């Protein structure tokens, strides 16, 4: 077995305290594939493409989400298409010469173990997205206040600092020992603040 595929010898289990998917190497791929819990048939197989008939896909949308997530977490899996009406999954992957059967065994093992994954609920993801959005709004508001908060200094002083730092920054680009980038950034900041 190749080293890259040796890492696929896993039984996908969950860590319920962190609600993350954790791969734990407990059984070999062949053991998992030969002890089916989920009805699965290989309908069509080409190098780099596998079409599986999985009746559970028609009646369990959560399982199809888990299966898609688990398969797409493998670096050599390209595309996963699930068709619940036809109860099939089409998996496109990067075929490695000599390890085609090992790759298919890994895919079949994931089909068997995908039901044991725990995915974050949609509500938790929406709450996280809302929290990040509010953080971004607060950060951009603070940045705007910072840029416009220099009214007391005077726009003329800021323009003078900007022009001076621009001159020193250009000189720093030409002279080898004088750093130019910090002065150019200071010039840019001062021009923004005084405009």
TrEMBL record:
<dbReference type="InterPro" id="IPR007401">
    <property type="entry name" value="DUF454"/>
</dbReference>
<feature type="transmembrane region" description="Helical">
    <location>
        <begin position="157"/>
        <end position="178"/>
    </location>
</feature>
<keyword id="KW-0812">Transmembrane</keyword>
<protein>
    <submittedName>
        <fullName>DUF454 family protein</fullName>
    </submittedName>
</protein>
<dbReference type="Pfam" id="PF04304">
    <property type="entry name" value="DUF454"/>
</dbReference>
<keyword id="KW-0472">Membrane</keyword>
<keyword id="KW-1133">Transmembrane helix</keyword>
<dbReference type="Pfam" id="PF19991">
    <property type="entry name" value="HMA_2"/>
</dbReference>
